[in-house]
Amino acid sequence: MICLRLWREAPTERRLASGLVLLLACLVMVLMTGKSDAENLPPLKIVAFGTSLTARGGWQPGLQTRLSACLQRSVKVESVAKSGETSTWALTQLDRVVAEQPDIILIELYANDATLHRFVSLAQSRRNIADILDQLHQRLPRARIILMAMNPFSGLRGLIRPFVGSYISAHQAEARKRGLEFIDYRPDWERLTPDDLAAAIPDGAHPRPEVASKIIVPQLARHIAGRDCGE
Fold first, then answer.
1. Quick check: pTM over 0.85?
2. Whole-angstrom distance, CA of residue 150 vs CA of residue 140
3. Structure confidence by residue, pLDDT tens digits, 33-62
4. How far is the CA of 213 from the CAs of 62, 118, 144, 216, in angstroms?
5. CA distance 83 to 175
6. Sheet arrangement for strand 75-81
7. CB–CB of 205/164 below 8 Å?
């Protein structure tokens, strides 16, 4: 609007010449303003909330870098996660998640619930995740909540989780009931050859960080920021 007013106020005989100059000046102003606005945005805050698949995952730095490049905005990924813990533990950690005031919360809390020796029944796990989702939505109504199914288990780690698929399905059902998002990385892991999968997850549960980043980051970044961000 400023550029248009200046052009109208210019003498008629000078409008053609001045118009070209003003056009170039206005383009520069628009580009500079857009850049300034992007730079002034607060960091996009993400909390990854989960088990050792998050605590030892190693995919968070890659996600931070990828999203920052895609969004042209600072991105900060924090973790509230602990190896060996269950959704029962997670219920005691909600204050920590809320304190971060995240824009996005990534959740994986089924893996240890599904182990036979921790005695978290399928019904209890489902009640826990429902309570977690309801509390987070109530306390962080603007946050985007994304549940995730991580990598497959094998060997002894798989044997102690004979019904892990049912736990994942229960958590997914609670997410869908609330209109929340769900991402399943298992199909991407299962596209690896048996030898490559065994090398990528040598203990049958915890992927090597560099491989986890290659599997998780593109899909998650694409899901958060759009198709082009995963390329």
1. no
2. 24
3. 554 455 678 999 999 999 999 999 999 999
4. 6, 29, 21, 5
5. 23
6. 75-81, 44-50, 104-108, 144-149, 181-184
7. no
Burial environment of residue 102 by CB neighbours within 10 A (0 to 12, 13 to 18, 19 or more): buried
Taking the C-alpha atoms of residue 185 and residue 206, their distance in angstroms, rounded to an integer, is 14
Q: At what angle do helices 164-177 and 122-139 cross, to 10 degrees?
A: 30
Q: Please answer whether residues 110 and 171 qualify as being in contact, where contact means their C-beta atoms are separated by less than 8 angstroms.
A: yes
Tell me if residue 148 falls in helix, strand or coil. strand
Taking the C-alpha atoms of residue 220 and residue 224, their distance in angstroms, rounded to an integer, is 6
**How many angstroms separate the CA atoms of 92 and 6, rounded?**
61
Q: What is the Cβ-side half-sphere exposure of residue 217, based on CA atoms within 13 angstroms?
A: 22
Q: If one looks up domain 42-230 in CATH, what number appears?
A: 3.40.50.1110
CA torsion 82→85→87→91, rounded to 10°? -60
Type of residue found at 227: R
Strand 144-149 to strand 181-184: parallel, antiparallel, or no bridges (unpaired)? Answer: parallel
For 136-171, the pLDDT digits (tens) are 999 999 999 999 999 999 999 999 999 999 999 999
CA distance 174 to 122: 13
